[in-house]
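Archive entry: two folds, one per protein. Generate the first.
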Amino acid sequence: MSTITAVSTPNAPSAIGPYSQAIKAGEFVFVSGCIPLVPSTMQIVEGGIEEQTKQALTNLKAVLEASSSSVGKVVKTTVFLKNMEDFATVNKIYEEFFSGSEHKPARSAVEVARLPKDVLFEIECIAG
């Protein structure tokens, strides 16, 4: 059986519940849902969907790097939106975020009734 290791970094918001920022299992990294909290204040970034998406992706990148992985190694993401009307805006920011990768990760995007702390955007991923 492969080694399972919890990942923690001060460069991303600390977990706000009984979970890890990420888990390394063998060669894979499973990143918990990242929401747009500013790590230093643990407050939601000011602004709307653009600012929240960018902050959550910044947090995702920090956890990936703390896991000895990177954005370019992401194989699957799941995006949670408060409002599917924000999809085009989020998709543009998402595309820019992954533009340096040699591939586009597999992805699911769903609208949900409510997200933690009533944020507008959350993303989780699996990376190599």
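Generate the second and append.
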Amino acid sequence: MASQKTLLLLVVLVSAAFAARQASDVRRGKGQGKPKQNQRVGGWTSVDQNDEAVQQLAQFAAGQICPNYVVDAVEKAEKQVVAGMNHRMDIIVSKAWKCKVKVFEQTWTNTTRLTSFACKSVP
């Protein structure tokens, strides 16, 4: 009976050590879940500003700021995985404004929300 308990304890300890090693490797960028170089887990990642989904989110953001705004260009786009996805973009709208916008998207709840924006006139 004592040897069974010892064996069970040994299995639990080895499993815990293995799990801790896996978590440590992921944090250091090794193994599965490896982040790209210079990328922190949970950090912002650059995305192609010409991507169709990025363009649609930019137009959504511009329309939330003012229904008449039209996106002329997306200058920069980034994403961040959260309980959904945060999108951060620098956009030019209606040839008059440069806006920094953040959009939260959660596809499984059909949620898209402009969470912040700041616009300056284009000289």
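Annotation attached to the second fold: The two ends are 82 Å apart (CA to CA). The first strand starts at residue 45 and ends at 46.
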